[in-house]
Design goal:
By secondary structure, the chain is of the alpha/beta class. The protein has a single domain, classed as Alpha-Beta Complex (Spore Coat Polysaccharide Biosynthesis Protein SpsA, Chain A). It contains 9 helices and 10 strands. The chain has helices at residues 15-26, 46-56, 70-80, 99-110, 141-146, 159-162, 174-183, 210-224, 229-249; strands at 5-11, 34-40, 60-65, 85-88, 94-95, 114-123, 128-133, 138-139, 156-158, 189-201. Strands 1, 2, 3, 4, 5, 6, 7, 8, 9 and 10 form a 10-stranded mixed β-sheet that branches. The radius of gyration is 17 Å and the shape is globular. The mean pLDDT is 92.
């Protein structure tokens, strides 16, 4: 199978972890068309590291932006992406070697335009792996209004079919807001087989201000999705319960 995937990775002051992410992509049994890494205003030597890696790895591309956040960094990567499929891998997460092979084969065979998969959570603080998070076989727009089981590190969409879809300019939950946009017209997200991704959870992964996060999500319901206040509050309550359940399952 020819290379079809553009991998997009935002990175901010994560040089050490970034090397592992780069090697995880290099080690794929299905090589990507390109791996686009966006340096989001790092000050830890990321720029020098990426310049060196680009000399060694032909499919690696490096873009620098001033500090604007992961969502805007991903959007720069999406803009640059030339592949049929756009997949996401954050700098501190990992893929197992068959991730792209499993996902692309599934999407090609099933004519699927938006897919996701199961993943394992690694607690970096305790160096412990939790149970795999098992996602539903399919997800609709209505499902995603009530919760977001899609891990960004497992998601990919077909930009030839759906166009270049960008992460909305919101403070938090940019990936979830994108999944809503991709499914709003009736497109179903489908799960590819296998558990091929490792999400690295640490103290930095936890929101320090739960109220602020909830308010940001409420604004996505109200402003992006044009949902009335009462329905938005109901969806937010369901989302919060599902998020707690997911964290309990993967502890």
């Amino acid at each position: 199978m020819k290379p079809l995937v553009s991998v997009v990775t935002p990175s901010h002051n994560a040089a050490a972890a970034l090397v592992q992410a780069v090697h995880a992509v290099v080690g794929q049994t299905l090589a990507p068309l390109e791996h686009v890494i966006i340096d989001d205003g790092s000050t830890d030597g990321t720029a020098e590291l990426l310049q060196e890696l680009c000399r060694e790895i032909p499919h690696l591309q490096y873009i620098h932006q001033r500090r604007r956040g992961a969502g805007m960094a991903r959007n720069l990567g999406i803009e640059a992406a030339r592949g049929r499929y756009i997949a996401f891998l954050d700098s501190d997460d990992l893929w197992l070697p068959r991730k792209l092979q499993s996902q692309v084969s599934f999407m090609e065979e099933q004519e699927c335009v938006f897919s996701y998969g199961d993943y394992v959570v690694h607690d970096r603080d305790r160096d412990r792996f939790g149970r795999a998070f098992r996602t539903p076989r399919e997800l609709t727009y209505e499902d995603l209004l009530r919760g977001c089981p899609i891990g960004c590190l497992t998601a990919a969409y077909n930009q030839e079919a759906l166009g270049k879809s960008y992460m909305p300019r919101v403070a938090r939950g940019q990936d979830w807001a994108l999944w809503l946009a991709l499914t709003r017209d009736g497109t179903r997200a489908m799960k590819y087989p296998g558990t091929e991704a490792v999400y690295q959870r640490g103290k930095g992964s936890l929101s320090a201000n739960k109220l602020s996060k909830s308010l940001d999500m409420y604004q996505i319901y109200r402003q992006q999705e044009r949902i009335g206040a009462a329905r938005a509050i109901g969806y937010l309550a369901s989302f919060s319960i599902n998020s707690l359940r997911k964290r309990w399952v993967t502890r």
